[in-house]
Design a protein that fits this description.
Immunoglobulin-like, about 400 residues, alpha+beta, 3 domains, 4 helices, five-stranded mixed β-sheet, elongated, six-stranded antiparallel β-sheet
Length: about 400
């Protein structure tokens, strides 16, 4: 702001700053070392003379007060400066003046490619349906691209210190983590550069100099970092870039979209009828009853894409375990019988260890329906002859895991 003082003079402090900035634009500095190449020597000298003549004329109009008015039109005087500069030489000089200021603006960009050099973009295909079984472990890789190699022409220069790191095009960036979430999908991106997982853009500062990415490796991984959202659409297009400042130097894009699904099999509740028993059905020595009741659990409609299915039998709070390793649970709290428990065994009459995952035999990655054959029987769990007749009911939870 130009302020008029009481004696009719003007405060030139702000003007001095502005003129200093203008002078520094065309003053040959090391970082503008190619500037002279835009002008023939005679034209450069003429332009410098005209520029400083225009500055002096401009300053003279500012410090010469007009007695007819105390309020000066600073805008018109600024216009006068540029008019003076343009009128100072012929049309050829005006052409060079435009070139001068265009060049000065272009070098202010943080990083750029020279002629003939370029960034890399790699396209990768992802399955149209990305199957992630419900119980896939956290941080497990659910998709991995090919390994790509950056071109030898991937050379760029940075005119100033710039931020470096991965730019996540489908979510947020973090300068402290190499795991980049894909919105609220339960999945995240990892960008491999060389042998390293790259943290978010800004985790590292590159000093001002030239760089080359040629022969370095790039790879995209998608991992599970939460509960996958079935039906979530991962769009085609850019998914992650390696960036120096605002310059994307290497980008991986998806050539097609993909829908997340969480496949699982279906099971139904099972009621096992144990029948009626007499006290004589329980041997005096405490060994299990000879009455063995076979039953089976049906696992239906398993979709393709599940690599492995496991199951386990888990006691409930109303019918807790009596002996985990022997597969024995107590009767539930509503039962009136006393002194007996229930044992679950496999098809070979081996006790099922409770709370322990067991692989579903003969399962195929193509999916299908399966049957798990099991057996159950009562046995005495108290000392002596302390069995009390009554209802003898129990329950447990059948838990399936998909990997």
């Amino acid at each position: 702001m130009l302020a008029e003082l009481s004696d009719g003079k003007y405060d030139l402090s702000d003007i001095g700053i502005r003129v200093g900035i203008l002078i520094s634009i065309i003053n040959p500095q090391p970082e503008l070392a190619g500037l002279h190449m835009l002008l023939p020597p005679s034209k450069y000298s003429t332009l410098m003379d005209n520029f400083f003549n225009a500055v002096m004329l401009y300053l003279f109009t500012l410090i010469t007060p007009k007695k007819s008015s105390k309020t000066e039109d600073v805008k018109s005087r600024t216009q006068l400066f540029w008019t003076s500069l343009i009128k100072a030489d012929n049309l050829a000089t005006k052409k060079y003046t435009l070139l001068l200021f265009f060049f000065a603006q272009s070098v202010s960009a943080d990083c750029s490619y020279r002629s003939g050099d370029h960034a890399d973009t790699f396209a990768t295909s992802i399955p149209p349906s990305l199957s992630i079984p419900r119980d896939t472990p956290m941080n497990a890789i659910v998709f991995e691209s090919s390994i790509y190699t950056n071109n030898n022409s991937n050379k760029f220069t940075c005119a100033t210190d710039v931020a470096w790191g991965a730019v996540n095009h489908l979510g947020t960036n973090s300068t402290t983590s190499s795991i980049h979430p894909i919105k609220n999908s339960g999945l995240s991106i990892i960008l491999i550069y060389g042998n390293d997982e790259v943290k978010g853009h800004g985790y590292l500062t590159l000093p001002r100099q030239d760089y080359r990415l040629g022969d370095t490796k790039m790879q995209l991984r998608i991992i599970k970092t939460g509960e996958p959202v079935s039906g979530f659409l991962i769009p085609a297009g850019e998914i992650v870039s390696l960036s120096a400042g605002t310059l994307k130097v290497s980008t991986i894009r998806l050539s097609n979209s993909s829908v997340v699904n969480t496949p699982s099999c279906s099971t139904a509740d099972i009621n096992v009828k144990m029948g009626q028993y007499k006290l004589d059905d329980f041997p005096k020595d405490g060994s299990p009853s000879d009455k063995i009741i076979p039953f089976s659990i049906k696992v239906d409609s398993c979709p393709g894409g599940i690599n492995k299915v496991t199951y386990s039998l888990v006691p409930t709070s109303s019918a807790p375990a009596f002996n985990v390793n022997q597969g024995i649970i107590n009767l539930n709290q509503r039962s009136t019988a006393k002194g007996i428990g229930l044992q679950v065994m496999d098809s070979n009459l081996n006790p099922i260890i409770l709370n322990k995952a067991k692989t579903l035999d003969n399962y195929s990655i193509n999916g299908g329906s399966y049957t798990i054959p099991l057996n159950a029987r009562y046995l005495k769990i108290s000392n002596g002859s302390g069995i009390t007749p009554g209802t003898a009911n129990s329950e447990m939870t059948f838990v399936m895991s998909y990997l």
